[in-house]
Amino acid sequence: MQNNFVVGVDIGGTNFRIGLVSEEGNLCSYIIQSSSILNKTGNSLISLKEYLLEYIKKNLSGELKAISIGLPSTISKDKKKVYSTPNLPGFNNVNVVDYLYNEIKVPIFLNKDVNCLLKWDMIDKGISKEGVTLGFYIGTGFGNSICINGEFLSGKNGVAGELGHIPVLNCNDICGCGNKGCIELYASGKTLRRIKEDNFKDTNISELFVRHKDSEVLKEFIEKISIPIATEINIFDPDNIIIGGGVVNMKGFPKPFLEECVYKHSRKPFPAEGLKFIYSSQTQESGVLGAAFKAMEELNQNQEGSFNSDSYR
Ligand SMILES: [Zn+2]
């Protein structure tokens, strides 16, 4: 019997990751490379299409059911158009889905990258779809995804969950989004680099927490990360809290202190009591797997496939 596949694509400002995920949930032909491949033709969308066609021709041995793409962007409610993507300017205001569908003729799915990550983390950690699961991903920026009873909150325009851009009063630094004083400017990997340059010039960034986690400046940084997390916990009273991203995965990152700070800023007795923190086992493949499984779920709902992400576990 011929196997069915979904192509999962995870595009970041730095890395481009792609793989084929089979009906049984197996990942194959996984490739990670520089996102600069999108500059090949001078038009990101055309470069992406040409790359996808070549990748499929070279690697697919079975039936292609869909292509599912995660981007670090705000995406329209119908999940076709990228509104804004500061790290990949070539996709700003572009209808990715209609273009690729017309060119490749398979269903195309487009999602915010953190929704793909949270999808994968929920499968990977065996988290029930019932209830509220919040995902916080602290990398270069501050990513957030909100899943309620298996549905990812999208809001009126599709852009819910821009937690990194909640404003901090009396802070006037300019954010990549154009606004002033977004919390992402003070609670992300970008900030951490600045802290290192200003305070620990001789320490390699990978050793920052190992060597200096008890310093006041890093404790203050961790507390700043806890503010948006506690804010959203106070709004949603979540069943599960997933925390991930490059900063949290650094060696020596003080998880207990972060949890202490989140507790401190959460309303007592609830939601503060019994907070359930789960740390993402994020790998380079997570975004590709999450994108693929998100598409499989939608194909199943439309009865266009028989994928079963539960069988994966
Ligand atoms: Zn902002």
What would a concise description of this structure say?
The protein is α/β, with parallel strands linked by helices and 313 residues long. The chain contains 8 helices and 13 strands.
Structural class: alpha/beta
The CA-CA distance between the termini, in Å, is 23 Å
Largest sheet: 5 strands, mixed
Q: Report the principal-axis shape.
A: globular
User: Please, how many helices?
Assistant: 8
User: How would you state the average pLDDT, rounded?
Assistant: 94
Which range best describes the helical content: under 10%, 10-25%, 25-40%, 40-55%, 55-70% or over 70%? Answer: 25-40%
- How many individual β-strands? 13
Hetero groups: zinc ion
Strand content: 15-25%
**Radius of gyration, Cα only, in angstroms?**
20 Å
Low-confidence stretches: none
- Strand order in the largest sheet: 3-2-1-4-8
The helix-strand sequence is EEEHEEEEHEHEEEHHHEHEH
Would you kindly provide a written description of the structure presented here, covering whatever features stand out?
The protein has helices at residues 44-59, 96-104, 113-124, 189-199, 208-212, 216-236, 255-265, 286-301, and strands spanning 4-11, 15-22, 27-34, 63-71, 74-75, 81-84, 94-95, 108-112, 132-138, 142-148, 151-152, 240-244, 277-279. The chain is an alpha/beta fold. The strands form three sheets. Strands 3-2-1-4-8 form a five-stranded mixed β-sheet. The longest helix is centred in the C-terminal third of the chain and has 21 residues, at 216-236. The two termini are 23 Å apart. Zinc ion (ZN) is lined by residues 165, 175, 177, 179, 182, 184.
